[in-house]
């Protein structure tokens, strides 16, 4: 009875001596405020990144990402996965090795918080040889060109930054990308070789390249491409008009923005709704990631101001238009074939 009485008196004294400040100190204790109970996959589920969790599980990465870490995960939201072409999703669903590689490209070993992110910072991912490029444009942060829409979501084994897009591992440098996609860029590759710029765009950069497609080159005035290919200095001036120092993903572009190219002349960006133009060329695929910068695919060749070309004189030839076009095409093929692609 005496022991019980002493215990009751002790409790009474403790509560008697407590103040409202003691209560708030308990509530506002940092260990309570920042208490984290979820690992990366569990936190991703709470953040409604359900497609990411589904893909991580399918690729066999849920276990590793539940381990001690720490990891930094750039996690695309469901809408980001929904914007992927169906053909690409089908490939990833059928090839779990490739799916795992794409997902590993979204993970950095170690905890990297937003306060540590600086413009042009590159960080190695769990995919060997593939770095994420981080850029800061004012208040906007991008990871390999995809906007970070929510930062510093804490897990027990790391941190998640939510992305508004899915990052695809780079195929290599600007030149390497063009070489690996000949159906789109074979003429660009020939032009880079002829102008002695292929090695330059294999360099560290970073560069932003507005890359014309094969069709864009084909749409040049008759004789213009042959004229360029036979005049390397003139060709280099045109190609350098497509290259900007630094990484300008679409998040960095604004309507009316003028950007100085390596040619020394400016190009002008125009934005109307979802349509983006550089001078008079439409951007038909933006934010292609390469190891030394970014590529925007355009549907026309950008021509520096006041540049002129030799042209086939329609008034001084008796060749009918169809024959003349075929003759031009054969001359073009012959000229292209004279340059060895490295």
From TrEMBL:
Coiled coil: none annotated. Residues 36-167, 172-302 form the FAS1 domain. Keywords: Signal. InterPro entries: Adhesion/Biosynth-related, FAS1_dom_sf, FAS1_domain. It comes from the Eukaryota. Residues 1-18 form the signal peptide. Transmembrane segments: none annotated. SUPFAM superfamilies: FAS1 domain. GO terms for molecular function: cell adhesion molecule binding. One of its GO terms (cellular component) is extracellular space. PANTHER family: FI19380P1, PERIOSTIN-RELATED. This is FAS1 domain-containing protein. It comes from Lottia gigantea.
């Amino acid at each position: 009875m005496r022991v019980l009485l002493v215990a009751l008196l002790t409790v009474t004294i403790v509560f008697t001596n407590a103040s409202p400040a003691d209560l708030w100190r308990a509530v506002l204790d940092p260990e309570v405020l920042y208490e984290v109970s979820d690992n990366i996959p569990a936190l991703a589920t709470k953040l409604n990144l359900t497609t990411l969790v589904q893909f991580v599980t399918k690729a066999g990465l849920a276990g590793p990402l539940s381990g001690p870490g720490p990891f930094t995960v750039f996690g695309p939201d469901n809408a980001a996965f929904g914007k992927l072409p169906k053909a690409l999703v089908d490939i990833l669903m059928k090839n779990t090795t490739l799916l795992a590689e794409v997902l590993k490209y979204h993970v950095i070993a170690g905890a990297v918080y937003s306060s540590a992110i600086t413009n042009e910072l590159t960080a190695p991912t769990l995919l060997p040889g593939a770095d994420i490029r981080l850029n800061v444009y004012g208040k906007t942060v991008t990871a390999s060109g995809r906007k970070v829409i929510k930062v510093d979501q804490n897990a027990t084994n790391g941190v998640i930054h939510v992305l508004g897009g899915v990052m695809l591992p780079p195929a290599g440098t600007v030149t390497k990308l063009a070489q690996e996609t000949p159906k789109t860029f074979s003429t660009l590759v020939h032009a880079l070789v002829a102008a002695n710029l292929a090695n330059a765009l294999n360099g560290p950069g970073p560069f932003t390249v507005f890359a014309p497609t094969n069709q864009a080159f084909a749409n040049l005035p008759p004789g213009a491409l042959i004229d360029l290919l036979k005049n390397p200095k003139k060709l280099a001036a045109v190609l350098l008009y497509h290259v900007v120092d630094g990484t300008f993903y679409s998040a960095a572009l604004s309507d009316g923005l003028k950007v100085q190219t390596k040619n020394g002349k400016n190009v002008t960006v125009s934005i109307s709704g979802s349509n983006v133009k550089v001078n008079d060329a439409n951007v038909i695929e933006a934010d292609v990631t390469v190891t030394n910068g970014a590529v925007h695919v355009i549907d026309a060749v950008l021509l520096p101001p006041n540049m002129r070309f030799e042209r086939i004189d329609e008034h001084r030839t008796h060749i009918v238009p169809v024959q003349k076009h075929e003759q031009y095409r054969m001359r073009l093929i012959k000229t292209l074939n004279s340059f060895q692609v490295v």
